[in-house]
Amino acid sequence: IPAELFDWSQNAPSHLFYQTGGRRPFIERAEGVYIWDAQGRRFLDGSSGAMVSNIGHGNKRVLDAMRDQMNATTFGYRLHFENEPAERLASVLSKLSPQGLDRVFFASGGSEAVESCIKLARQYALAKGETKRTEVISRFPSYHGSTFGALAVTGYGPLNDPFAPMVREMPKIPAPRAYLDRDNSSDEARGLRYADMLRGKIEELGPENVLAFIMEPVGGASTGALVAPDSYYQRVRDICDDYGVLLIYDEVMTGVGRTGTFLAAEHWGQSPDIIALSKGLGAGYVPLGAMIARRDIVDPVVANGGFMHGYTYAGNPLACAAGLAVIREIYEQDLMANTARIGALLKSRLDNLTARFPFIGDVRGKGLLLAFELVANRETMTPLPKDANAFAKLVEYAYEEQLIIYSRRTHGGYEGDHFLVCPPMIATESHVDEIMEKLTKSLD
Ligand code: PMP
Questions:
Q1: 8: CB partners within 8 A, 6+ apart
Q2: Probe ligand 1: pick from 252, 313, 408, max atoms within 8 Å of CB?
Q3: SUPFAM superfamilies in the record, alphabetically (predicted)?
């Protein structure tokens, strides 16, 4: 071993180049909802990382399942060998998906899962002889990932702009930010109005050119837990059916229990055609993503020469064994019910904050995918000026209180500061108390 090769100290300049601000403390260990840094400070993980660590950190049963798998094998290349954990996880995911969605394709993350959805949709159209269908409509703001394909359907200027011209940026319609509408129309009317923008966009592009519509059923990082009025979801499904446009749900953040049901789609009782999953599936234990698609979409593609797509690490036995153990744990501890219950409690406590802090403009979300937005004026929903830097400052104040929350400045027609409060699904009442105490101090 060359003498200097593995020399390293925390004080030496970092060779990692993606860090933007100052260097964060080093993570030392994590257990349940808590993370300790190298100085021994204990942080409450109020955002589950980036809404990832759904079942909490250091779950012993998941780690044991991983260790068992590691002792057998960690890798078998998918073109050479099948593996049992991948088969088992695909079986579980198809049983937890809407009727007819029973074909599973693995990836190693959310962007890869979204890429898979778009490429499957393209090949499906080809298999049907619909060669012109290439447009994938999405929404703004939205976030679907950082690879070029996923970025082309992402509606978030600062992330898109540096890469223009992209592979090809895709057409977008506004996300249904009904909470900003100051008119007197009903929630139902607003939902339908936003959904009908999809019809308008399809007509504008020419229905024969439109392949798919992709959306996050509950918005994530880009919108701050944006939930559309109920009427939106069925109307979007109907419009897609009217034009033969595939409906893709990006459930990378919402899936695997985060909103209180296994898939967020279940809240509205209708089914997309293809689903992307990731974050909560690996839950911080392994990089893992999945696409779940309708059998009658996949079968013609397979029959027509195969899906021309794949990732080296996809469906590896270690990642799949961990994913299986994560889902088992969700059932073992009844974590979806806990998410619904603790989510409702946390949301009502956040709602109560609006009485004390007039600058909280909106509180929203589902299950434990919750957020609040800061504004200069709640009546008019006038955002704070950008140079107030509220989204960065409040996160810093919370950090000082040893509470982790996740923030973004939104883009796309309205720029505001929102904050995601999304502890792991194992959170208890006392964790909610602790979050609220620290958050209130930070807001003060
Ligand atoms: N889609 C959504 C809705 C996401 O929230 C994310 C990650 N924030 C992605 C896709 C991309 O996932 P990854 O970072 O694992 O590639």
A1: none
A2: 252
A3: PLP-dependent transferases
Around ligand 1, the residues with Cβ closer than 6 Å are: 50, 109-111, 114, 143-145, 216, 220-221, 250, 252-253, 278
C-alpha distance from residue 54 to each of 47, 83, 234, 290 (Å):
9, 25, 28, 16
Closest protein CA for atom 5 of ligand 1: 253
**pLDDT band at 20, cuts 50/70/90?**
low
**In the chain, % of residues over pLDDT 70:** 99
Picking from 16, 273, 252, the residue whose alpha carbon sits closest to that of residue 146 is 252
Atom of ligand 1 nearest to the CA of 221: 5
Supply 109's token pair.
């993350």
Question: What is the C-alpha to C-alpha distance for residues 163 and 148, in angstroms, rounded to an integer?
Answer: 9
All structural domains of the chain: 27-58+334-443 (3.90.1150.10), 63-332 (3.40.640.10)
User: pTM surpassing 0.90?
Assistant: yes
* SS3 assignment, position 302: helix
User: What atom of ligand 1 comes closest to residue 109's alpha carbon?
Assistant: 15
List, for residues 374-423, the tens digit of each pLDDT value: 999 999 999 999 999 999 999 999 999 999 999 999 887 788 999 999 99
Instruction: Give me the chain's average pLDDT, please.
Output: 95
Of 201, 275, 186, 277, the closest CA to residue 236 belongs to 201
Residue with tokens 């024969």: 208
Query: Could you please report the per-residue DSSP string of 192-208?
Result: HHHHHHHHHHHHHH-GG
Q: Measure 52 CA to ligand 1 centroid, in angstroms.
A: 10
CA–centroid distance, 278 to ligand 1, in Å, is 8
For the chain, helix, strand, coil in percent to 5 are: 40, 20, 40
Query: Distance from the CA of 265 to the center of ligand 1, in angstroms?
Result: 17
Distance CA 144, CA 257 (A): 19
Q: Are 173 and 201 in contact (CB under 8 A)?
A: yes
Identity (one letter) of the amino acid at 125?
A: A
Output the CA 110–ligand 1 centroid distance in Å: 4
> Treating both helix axes as pointing N-terminal to C-terminal, what angle do 295-303 and 110-127 enclose, rounded to 10 degrees?
70
Atom 12 of ligand 1 has which residue's CA nearest to it? Answer: 110
Cα of 114 vs centre of ligand 1, distance in Å, is 8
